[in-house]
Amino acid sequence: MQSSKRCFGYVRVSTLKQGEGVSLEAQRDAIEAYAARSNLVIVRWFEEKVTAAKTGRPAFTAMVKLLLKHAADGVILHKIDRGARNLRDWASIADLSDTGIDVFFATETLDFRSRGGRLTADIQAVIAADYIRNLREETLKGIHGRLKQGLLPWSAPLGYVNNGGGKPKTIDPVVGPQVRRVFELYATGQHSLRTLVVEMKRSGFRTPAGRSLAKHPIEAILNNPFYCGVIKVGTTGETYPGIHEPLISPELFAQVQEVKAGRTGKKLVKHECLYRGLFRCAECQRLMTPEVQRGHTYYRCHTGDCVTKGIREEDLDARVLDFLTSVRLSEEDIEVFERELGVYLNQELVNDDRQSLNVRLTQARERLSRIEDAFIDRHLDQAAYQEKRERELLEIRRLEEELAGLKDDQQLVHHTMEFFERAKSFAGLYGMANAPERRELVSLVSSNRWVDGKDVVLEPSKWLVPVQNRKPVPPCDSTRPQTRMPIEHIMSTFREHRYEVERFNELMARHLPAKPSTKFKRAA
Fold it and tell me: Which domains does the chain have, with CATH numbers?
C-alpha cells in the first residue's frame, strides 16, 4: 500500500477586505477534504492575513524555506490566487515543483507537474497578478478623485472624526481643542517636544483610546498641514486644498514650522523660570539667563563686559505689574469705543479690505495655475513643484480664512467688545493668575522686553499699539489732544491678530468673565 505524502497546508485571507476570497475556516475545510480524497496527510498549517499582492509575507516565506529543506513532501493551497498574486511569489511556488516538491490546489483540477497543468496554472497566476494591478489602479483613481474633491480618503488624524465615505472629517469636540493647544504651546517657542509631552500629559491630554501621547505622535501632529486645511499625501508629497473645517490658522501652522526649524530662538527645556526667554539685555541684546540662588531667581546677562548684570524675578514682577496697569482702558475710553463700533458695523467700512483680499486671492490662484502649467511643461521638477504648490495652497487657505473672517464682523466685534470690557483689569488678572498664565499674559500683551541696568522696559504688542498709543477722545472734551486712532484701524489690527485677541479673552475668562455690555447697541 502506497504511503501517504506529508504536506503543509497554507491558508490566507487579505487584510484589504475587498470581498475577494473565502474565510480561513472554509479554506481549511476544502484542503482537508482534498487531502482525504488524495491520500495526503497535513503535518502543519501555515495561516496568513496578508494580501498576496505584495512580496514578503512572513508565513509564506517561512513555509517555502522549510519545503526547500524537505521538511514535507508538498503543500496544499486552496486555489492559485491564495498562494500568490504577484509573479515573484508565483515563481517561488514554481521553483518548489522544479525541486521535486508537490504543489496541490484543493479547488482546481490540474496536474501541476504536467506541461498542460503547469501552463494553465501560469495563465491563472498572470490573470491574478493583472487583477491586482487593475484593482490597485482603480483604487488609486478613487483616492485621487477624493483628494481633488478636498476629501481625505484615509482615517481622520487625531482631533478629527470620520463621517463615512464622501464626507469631510469634522473636528472632535473633545480632542480637537487639545490638539489645537499643542500647536499654540509649541508656537510660543518655549517648549521642546519633550517638555510639550510633559505639559500635555499634565493637562490631561488623552486620545479617544485613553492614552497619552508620546514624542513622535506629537511631532507628526505638528508636521501635518491637514490641521490648517491642506491635505498632504505622505508618500508623494502632493498637496490638495481640503474642504474640512481647519482646526488652526495657516499663520499658526507657519509659526510652528518656524519654531521647528530653529529660527525663533531656544526653546524652554530646563527650569520652569517664569520669564525665561522673555527679557533681553538692552546693552548687548542677549537673552537674560535665569539662575536660582538662595531661594531667589535672578536674570543675568552673561556678556563679560556688559553693564547690565542682573535683576531679581520679584523686581521684574513689580515692573510687569506697572506696565499692565498702564495699558488699562478707562470707562470713558470704552464708552467711545463701543459707540464707534456700532457706527463701524453699519457703515460697512470693511469693503476695501474685502476687495483687496479678493484681488490677492485671485493672484494666488493664478500663481498656482502657472506652477501647475510649468510642471506639465517640464519646467519644474517634482520636488520644486510640490514645494511651490504647497506654499501657494497654504497662502490661498490663509487668504480664504481672512476673507471668511471679514464676512463675520459681528463675531469680530464680539471678541473686540470682550477685550474692551476686560482691558480694565489687566493688572487684576495678573494678580490672580498662576505662573504659566502670568507668563502667557506677558508674552501676549508685550514685546521688546528689555533690562537696561536696573531699569525694565516693556512695549505693547503690535495688536495693542493702536489701543494703547491712540486712546479715543470724547468729542465733548476739548482739553485733550485729538489723537484718536480711527476704529477702522483698530478693527483691522484686531483682525490681523485675531488669534492674540481670542487667546487673551480665553486667558482672561478663566478669572474675569466678561459681562455683556449694556452700552453697545448697533445703530438702527
Answer: 5-135 (3.40.50.1390), 149-269 (3.90.1750.20), 331-349+389-509 (no CATH)
Residue 46 DSSP class: E
Mean pLDDT highest for which of 233-242, 419-428, 468-477?
233-242
The predicted model scores a pTM of 0.42
Short-list 58, 96, 57, CA closest to 76: 96
Exposed/middle/buried for residue 406 (C-beta within 10 Å: 0-12, 13-18, 19+): middle
Kindly tell me the burial class for residue 489, based on how many C-beta atoms sit within 10 Å of its own C-beta (0-12, 13-18, 19 or more): exposed
At residue 95, what are phi and psi to the nearest 5 degrees? -65, -35
> What is the average pLDDT across 97-126?
80
CA Rg value for the chain: 34
* 316-346 burial code (b ≥16 CB/10 A, e <16): beebbeebbeebebeeebbbbbbbbbbebbe
Q: Hey, what amino acid is at 60?
A: F
> What DSSP line would sit under 317-340, residue for residue?
HHHHHHHHHHTPPPHHHHHHHHHH
Average pLDDT, rounded, for the chain: 79
